[in-house]
Amino acid sequence: MTTPRQRVAIITGAGSAAGIGFAAARLLGAGGSPVVITSTTDRIFERVAELRAAGVRAEGVVADLTHPADAATVVGCASDSFGGVDILVNNAGMTSVSGSYASGAVDTLSLDAWNASLDRNLTTSFLMIRAVADLMQVAGYGRIVNVSSVSGPVAAYAGDVGYHAAKAGVVGLTRATAIDMAAAGITVNAVAPGWIDTASASDYERVLGAATPVGRSGTADEVAHAIGFLAGEGASYITGQLITVDGANSISEARGR
């Protein structure tokens, strides 16, 4: 009898040791999944070494996922190294507020900056889904989890129209893809983190986290557990959905106390 292989996971945007992507890779890897992780810099190989030291079968790829060829390279690495792709976590993107990229309101943001924000925060997910689609459809199984944000789909603040539009677009992509791929046994869902205390969080963001009903910012591990649930075998009848991970901040009417 042939022993079935473990579910293979790709997690993009996992270069930061304190980020959501790496937390998801640790969680899925601890559950037995071989993982392929990506970032835009060589620091991804430091994360691979940490995973391997913890007993996780891991490979890393330096990739700019705004380019279709790089997305194909990542998927090829998973297929060649581990025999396929069963789980895709689309976490690649640029953080809002504290990120070092051009932001602006609708009357000040340049078209180039608008396009760059959509490319980083939306097109990356589209290209990765497209790159895994055939493999998952042939296998008749897949779990795709897109990391969106509270900013855009659920709420907004002033001065960052590109990021908000892109992250709202991730939810639209999630729902449309869920419909397109449902008959093939593939689920597509999204998580919307709120104020999460990662390495890129600013002091201002931590103040906002402390003002949530829970009274603190969330952690990358808490978001990873939501991702892990949606990526699991048991989430087979959940698709096209958005899970908000924000300590009830987006539903609180009483603010400023």
Helix content percent band: 40-55%
What is the CA-atom radius of gyration, in angstroms?
A: 18 Å
Strand content: 5-15%
Q: Give the termini distance in whole angstroms.
A: 63 Å
Number of strands: 7
Predict the CATH topology. Rossmann fold
Strands side by side in the biggest sheet: 3-2-1-4-5-6-7
CATH architecture: 3-Layer(aba) Sandwich
CATH superfamily: NAD(P)-binding Rossmann-like Domain
CATH class bucket: Alpha Beta
Biggest β-sheet: count, sense, barrel?
7 strands, parallel
Figure out the total of helices.
7
Which structural class do you get from the secondary structure elements? alpha/beta
Mean pLDDT: 94
Shape: globular
**Total domains:** 1
Residue runs with pLDDT of under 50 for 5 or more positions: 96-100
Order of helices and strands: EHEHEHEHEHEHHE
Describe the structure.
With about 260 residues, this protein is α/β, with parallel strands linked by helices. It has 7 helices and 7 strands, in the order βαβαβαβαβαβααβ. It has a single domain (about 10-245), classed as Rossmann fold, CATH 3.40.50. The protein has helices at about 20-30, 45-55, 70-80, 110-140, 160-180, 205-210, 220-230, and strands at about 10, 35-40, 60, 85-90, 140-145, 185-195, 240-245. Strand 5 (about 140-145), helix 5 (about 160-180) and strand 6 form a beta-alpha-beta unit. Helix 1 crosses helix 7 and helix 4 packs parallel to helix 5 (about 160-180). It is globular.
